[in-house]
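Contributing new records

If you add data, match the layout below exactly. Sequence lines come first and carry their own label; structure lines follow with theirs. Keep one chain per record. Anything else will be rejected by the validation script.
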Amino acid sequence: MTGEPQEWKTPTGPAVLGGGEVHVWAAPLDPPEEQVRRLAALLAPDESARAERFRFERDRRRFTVARGVLRTLLAGYLETDPRRVAFRYGSHGKPVLDGGAAGEHEVRFNVSHSGEMALFAFSRGRELGVDVEEVRPMEDGLDIAERFFSEAEVAVFRSLPAEVRDDAFFNCWTRKEAYIKAVGEGLSFPLHVFDVSLVPGEPACLLASRDPRQAERWSLRGLPDPARGYRAAIVVEGGGWELSCRRWTPPVA
C-alpha cells in the first residue's frame, strides 16, 4: 500500500477497477432536485418503497441519492445498466451483488453516509468496510468511549487534552465501524475486542485484536476528509492494494 492520499480527485473517462485496487467515491447527498429525480428513476420497486417509508423528506432524499449513486457506480464497473444491478442481503444486513455479475466480476462494495455526505468503496475479490461520520461536539464522548471502546483505547482517550478529544473520538469511531462492516457481523461484533489508533495526527492502524488471525487478515487506513467537518476510514481484506479516492459528479444529461 502507498501512503495515505492527501486529496480527492475527479476522474475523467470510465472507471476501471483493477484486481489490486480499491476505489472510494465521495458524493454529496444534496444535489439539485433534477438530479434527485434522475437517480430515483434508477431504483428498484423495493428501494422506492423503502424510500417512501422515511418520515422526513430529507431522509427520503438521502436514501434515494445514495442508492442511485451506488447503482450508477456499480453499473460502470459491471458494464451494465444501473437498473439491472441486483442485490441480496446477508444475515446481518450487509448488501452484496446478486446474480451472475457477482461471480463474474468479483466486485465487493460497501457504503456509508452521514449528514449530507456518502462514501462508496469498491474492490475485486476483497471484503471491505468504509465509514464516514460528521464531526460534532461530543459532550458525552468519554461516557460513550467507556461503554464501547477497548480498555486500551479508553486509556489513550482519557490521556488526551480536552480540545482534541472530539477529533480522537471520531478517529476511533470511524475506524471501528469500518472494521466491523468489513467483517460483516454488524452490531453483533463487539467493539471492545480490538484496538485501533485514535490520536489526531498519528497514522490509522489496527493495533491489536483478541483474535490474532483477524488482525493479520485486515488492513486499516484513514481517508482524507471527504468534506469539511467529516472524518472517514476504510478497512480492506489483505495487503498490497492501492487506494484511489474519487469525487462523484453527476453524468451530463
